[in-house]
Amino acid sequence: IKTTTIPGLMYTMGAYPGIKLLSKSQYFKDPPLITGDLFEITDEYIVRRLDGYEGCDERNGDDGLYHRALAMTTCGVQTWIYEINGKQDPGRLIKSGDWCEHLKGESRRYG
Q1: Among the listed residues 8, 26, 27, the one whose alpha carbon sits nearest the alpha carbon of residue 18
Q2: pLDDT tens digits for 73-87?
Q3: Are 56 and 67 in contact (CB under 8 A)?
Q4: CA angle at residue 79 from 102 to 35, to 5 degrees?
Q5: Spatial CB neighbours of 2, under 8 Å, sequence gap ≥ 6
Q6: First-to-final CA distance of the chain
Q7: Cross-strand pairs, 2
């Protein structure tokens, strides 16, 4: 539907990003933001396929790589996101919160 942001932190996991949501109690005024694309998916079959692709299985709880969580976007839409499980290395933080921007920087660095 559109590009939007959510409060949170983005980490590089190598070939893909991992994100951690932030609650209002975790920041004082201006939260760090994660940029992403918002899609409307109404077909439960597609949601289950995405869960499988992301390694998210409700039977495994937090044992998988990700779990699905609700997040409120800055444009006021509540959405599902895939949040990485476990604690993350602060050295892997992507300060911009934008995976595409991060990849462009990496290609300039190594390109």
Answers
A1: 8
A2: 999 999 999 999 888
A3: yes
A4: 15
A5: 37, 38, 75
A6: 32
A7: 38
